Amino acid sequence: MPRLTALAALLMLLAPAALAEDAPVLAEYRADSGSLPPEYAWEASVIIHENGTLFLKRCTGYETEEPACKTRRAKVGEAALEAIRAAAVASNLREEPAHPPEDLAVGGGAVYGAVWLDGTKIDLPSQVREQDAGRVAGVLAAIRAAIPARLHRFLTD
Question: Where is the signal peptide, in residue numbers (predicted)?
Answer without folding.
Answer: 1-20
